[in-house]
Amino acid sequence: MATTTRKSRKTEGKMSVSTSDIEDDIRQLRADVGQLMTHLKEMGGQTGPAARRAASDGLDQLRAQGEAAMENVKGSAEELGQGVSQMVRDRPFSSLLLAGGLGFLLALATRR
């Protein structure tokens, strides 16, 4: 590190901190930063596997919830399909008219 050796007479008497004090402080600061980096690396190594485990557990929980919701939707769709099939068997003419009416409405809606 470059240091200045010439001091003016006005600042020489007022200066209570020498350049060697500043250099010592900078060395100490570098050592502290190095130690801080070491601690951060160690902490990162400890929290990495824990974060992976938490993410994996969360993913498993979301997967289970998704599968349960899918089973729920499947059950509802099967019930709806069975209800429609039963209605078609019970009232074939009404079902035909309803299907034709819905087709006509859809054709009008997509036409515009």
Encode the helix/strand succession as letters: HHH
- Got a strand count? 0
Radius of gyration: 39 Å
Class by helix and strand content?
A: mainly alpha
The main pleated sheet reads as:
none
What count of domains describes the coordinates? Answer: 1
Shape: elongated
Could you give the topology of this structure?
Blueprint: H1 9-14, H2 19-90, H3 92-111
Region (Disordered): 1-22
Protein name: DUF883 domain-containing protein
Transmembrane segments: 93-110
What does this structure look like?
This is DUF883 domain-containing protein. Keywords: Membrane, Transmembrane, Transmembrane helix. The structure is a single chain. This protein is an all-alpha fold. It has one domain. The chain contains three helices and no strands. Helix 2 crosses helix 3. The protein is elongated and about 105 Å long. The N terminus is likely disordered.
Summarize the structure.
With 112 residues, this protein is mainly alpha-helical. It has helices spanning 9-14, 19-90, 92-111. Helix 2 (19-90) packs across helix 3 (92-111).
Q: Any key phrases for this structure?
A:
about 110 residues; mainly alpha; single chain
